[in-house]
Design a protein that fits this description.
This protein has eleven helices and 14 strands. It is α/β, with parallel strands linked by helices. It folds into two domains: 100 residues, Arc Repressor Mutant, subunit A, CATH 1.10.10; 232 residues, 3-Layer(aba) Sandwich (D-Maltodextrin-Binding Protein, domain 2), CATH 3.40.190.290. The longest helix is centred in the first third of the chain and has 25 residues.
Length: 337
C-alpha cells in the first residue's frame, strides 16, 4: 500500500469500486477489539464468517491488515492507515440509512421493562408530542438492543452504555439520563427483608441473580461483577435467557433468588424491593440511538429527558455513592449530558 499524489490512500491491489461495506465493518470491529472472537460477538456473527470477511478484504486490497499470532492480534501499518477511512465510510453509511429510514414511520423504542426509567421518558414524550407515533418494546438488555439498533430493527433504547463493546459504542450516539440507585429484590420471608434499606456488606455470602448467561444483558452482569468484587457477594451461575415477566416470577420463586435491580422495578408478588446503601450504588442509565438518526420522535424523547432530568434531579450524583470507573468517565466526557 502507498499514499499517492494528493495524500490519497493507495493499496497494492487497488481499491475495488464496489467494495462490500460488510467487509469494512468486519475489519473495523477486529481493529477495535484486536480479538477475533470478541469482534464476532459485537457483530453477532460467527467467528469463522468474520475471519472469512477479513481475509476477503485483504485479498481485494492486496495487503495484510493484521498480524495474527496464537497470543495476539495487531494491526499492520496498512491496517492502521485503513482504519480512519473505514470508520468514515461506515459512519456515512449509517447516517444515510438513518436519514431515509426515519421518513414517515413510527419510532420504535425499547424501554427494557414496563417499569423503568426508559418507560417514564417514553410516556413523557408521548404526552408532549401526541402527534408523533412512539412504539414501545419491552426487551431487557442494552447489549441485545444495541445490536438491533445497528441492524436497523430498532431506533432507540435505554441502559448502561459503559458495558457495550467499543466497536459497538463507536457507532451509536448516547446521552446520560439518570443516575439510578440500585436495589435488591428479596423473597418476602428472607432474613434481610424486614430492613428498609440493605447495606451492601449485609449481602456478603449471598448469591444474586444478575442476568448471567443472558447474552442480551451482558452490560448488567458486568455491572454486578464490578459492584460485588471484594465484597463476598457472588453472581448466580449462568442461566438461560428468561423471556417474559411471568416466567421470571416463576423462576425467582422456585430458586428463591435475590435479584440485583434498581429502584425502578416491577412489583413482584411474594417479594420486596429494598434500596442498597453504604455506599449507594448507581446505575447510569443512558438513552442510545443510531448515529445520524433524524426523527421527530427522537426530538420528543430528548425534550422529555431534559425535562425529567431537571425536575427529578436525575443527573445529580449523591456524595459518597458508588459508580464504576467506565461509567464515571462517560459522564465526564466532552458533550456528555
Amino acid at each position: 500500500m502507498s499514499i499517492g499524489a494528493g495524500g490519497r490512500l493507495g493499496f497494492n491491489g487497488g481499491v475495488p469500486n464496489d467494495m462490500d461495506p460488510r467487509l469494512l465493518r468486519a475489519f473495523a470491529a477486529v481493529a477495535e477489539e484486536l480479538h477475533f472472537s470478541r469482534a464476532a460477538a459485537t457483530l453477532y456473527v460467527a467467528q469463522q464468517a468474520l475471519s472469512r470477511d477479513v481475509r476477503r478484504l485483504e485479498r481485494e486490497l492486496g495487503t495484510e491488515l493484521f498480524v495474527r499470532t496464537t497470543r495476539r492480534v495487531e494491526l499492520t501499518a496498512d491496517g492502521e492507515r485503513l482504519l480512519p477511512y473505514a470508520r468514515r465510510v461506515l459512519a456515512a453509511q449509517d447516517e444515510l440509512a438513518a436519514a431515509f429510514a426515519a421518513d414517515g414511520r413510527p419510532l420504535l423504542v425499547d424501554v427494557s421493562a414496563p417499569v423503568s426509567t426508559g418507560r417514564r421518558v417514553l410516556e413523557e414524550a408521548r404526552a408532549t408530542a401526541p402527534g408523533t407515533e412512539l412504539i414501545a418494546r419491552f426487551h431487557s438488555g442494552l447489549t441485545g438492543a444495541a445490536a438491533d439498533i445497528l441492524a436497523g430493527r430498532l431506533d432507540v433504547s435505554f441502559g448502561r452504555v459503559a458495558g457495550l463493546a467499543p466497536a459497538v459504542l463507536s457507532r451509536l450516539d448516547h446521552r446520560p439520563v439518570r443516575f439510578e440507585p440500585m436495589a435488591v429484590v428479596l423473597p418476602e420471608d428472607h432474613a434481610l427483608a424486614p430492613l428498609p434499606e440493605i447495606p451492601l456488606d449485609a449481602l456478603a455470602g449471598e448469591r444474586l441473580y444478575a442476568g448471567a448467561g443472558n447474552p442480551t444483558t451482558a452490560e448488567w452482569t458486568d455491572l454486578a461483577e464490578r459492584l460485588f468484587a471484594g465484597r463476598g457477594i457472588a453472581v448466580a451461575a449462568p442461566f438461560p435467557q428468561i423471556e417474559g415477566e411471568a416466567e421470571f416470577i416463576r423462576l425467582m420463586r422456585k430458586h428463591r433468588w435475590p435479584v440485583l435491580a434498581t429502584i425502578e422495578f416491577l412489583e413482584l408478588p411474594g417479594a420486596v424491593l429494598r434500596p442498597l446503601v453504604d455506599p449507594v450504588p448507581l446505575a447510569l442509565v443512558s438513552m442510545v440511538w443510531r448515529r445520524g438518526l433524524r426523527h421527530p420522535g427522537l426530538t420528543a424523547l430528548h425534550e422529555a429527558v431534559t425535562g425529567l432530568s431537571a425536575t427529578g434531579d436525575w443527573l445529580h450524583r449523591p456524595a459518597g455513592s458508588w459508580l464504576p470507573g467506565p461509567d464515571a468517565r462517560l459522564t465526564a466526557a466532552p458533550g456528555a449530558g
